[in-house]
């Protein structure tokens, strides 16, 4: 049976931000702002618009309290809702900075926090919007903010220094946000790809287990069903012409034979799908080739120059090879070749096709998820190759991708023989 492909979803899952997490972060901000306000107003007795600053803190307090009642405990904010809340935090902090010295206030560095939260948990679009909002607020605080609270005249800051502070803060916000966004997106891609790989492996394992259970059930039910069939035949011979029971007994005999045929078919299919837990590597390659009965181009298994070992018939090995052969079939012009070699140092499987080959710029990165098309004219995403590579690496293999000198792609899967012997298995 042909290996299933796994296309890239149009957008990677955005985890969003938990309401409880947002509430906790905002409580910390409210507490810090309130303590700072009290210290500056009561402790240092600096003059600034106390009521306006208190109103900004109160607005954040009211919004946080409302979140406790408007959302369930485990709710998450995504998309526009999350963007609106983080945008509010930026504006609220910008208002406080505007009232207390603008970019001359040491706490101006806190403008980075909402943007970094967005870069970690939200989409790139939301992060870019917040970057723009943060820089706009910084510019407004630079140009029009009230003086820094101070006893007497506040320290004079040259215009050039203020511009340098604005530029440094803007650059820092952009750099940190883009760095965190890149790392976060990479982590999301790998996590989603690994989840997909695990789901594929679990499905293959369950299908294999289901086949084994079906074979066992057919074997166990064969005895009782044989007895029922024998008794039904005897009754049918004795009551074949009986007007009351003859038709019923004949129907019972036919249905018993039908059940027996169904169980025999289940057992035969299970044995055909997984006849041996271990088999020669050459036989495994022929089995992989026969799994594509309607392939667009023929699959050739090259004869081995030396004897090949017996290998375990694992789900990881089979599905990994099927994915790579399927990829080769989609681009081959006239033929796909499977070959295997073995010597004292290593065991290797080669999959070659005469298609356009792998793109040179992606060759060093093949095996990573969501790279985009790996060959010219391809609509793929690289997820199938990632799944195959991950499954094969779980068997201890090393997967190398390259292009043939005469044209076409070449994939080499190799296992060190010494390591295999130490583990008492070939793969």
- CATH architectural grouping of the largest domain: 2-Layer Sandwich
CATH third-tier fold name of the largest domain: Heat Shock Protein 90
Count of DSSP helices?
11
Number of strands: 9
Count of domain modules: 3
Mean pLDDT, to the nearest integer, reads: 85
Query: What Rg is obtained from the alpha carbons, in whole angstroms?
Result: 34 Å
Terminus-to-terminus distance: 23 Å
Query: Low-confidence parts, pLDDT < 50 over ≥5 residues?
Result: 1-12, 420-427
CATH class of the largest domain: Alpha Beta
Strand order of the largest sheet: 4-6-7-9-8
Strand content: 5-15%
Helices and strands, in order, run as EHHEHHHHHEHEEHEEHEEH
Q: Name the helicity range.
A: 55-70%
* Biggest sheet character: 5 strands, mixed
CATH superfamily of the largest domain: Histidine kinase-like ATPase, C-terminal domain
Give the overall shape: elongated
Secondary structure category: alpha+beta
Task: Please name the defining characteristics of this protein.
two-stranded antiparallel sheet; His_kinase_dom; transmembrane helix; disordered C terminus; transferase; alpha+beta; 11 helices; elongated; disordered N terminus; HATPase_dom; five-stranded mixed β-sheet; 3 domains; Heat Shock Protein 90; transmembrane; 427 residues
How does this structure look, described?
α1 (19-43) runs antiparallel to α2, α3 (79-99) packs parallel to α5 (124-144) and α6 (159-238) packs across α7 (246-273). A hairpin with a 3-residue loop joins β6 and β7 (346-353). The chain has 427 residues and is an alpha+beta fold. It folds into 3 domains: 17-157, no CATH class; 199-273, no CATH class; 278-422, Heat Shock Protein 90 (2-Layer Sandwich). The chain is elongated, with a radius of gyration of 34 Å. The strands form 3 sheets. It has a 5-stranded mixed β-sheet with strand order 4-6-7-9-8. A two-stranded antiparallel sheet has the order 1-2. It contains 11 helices and 9 strands. The protein has helices spanning 19-43, 50-70, 79-99, 112-121, 124-144, 159-238, 246-273, 281-290, 315-331, 383-393, 417-422; strands at 17-18, 76-77, 278-280, 299-301, 310-312, 336-342, 346-353, 398-403, 409-416. The two termini are 23 Å apart. This is histidine kinase. Its EC number is 2.7.13.3. One of its GO terms (molecular function) is kinase activity. It catalyses: ATP + protein L-histidine = ADP + protein N-phospho-L-histidine. It is an enzyme of class 2 (transferase).
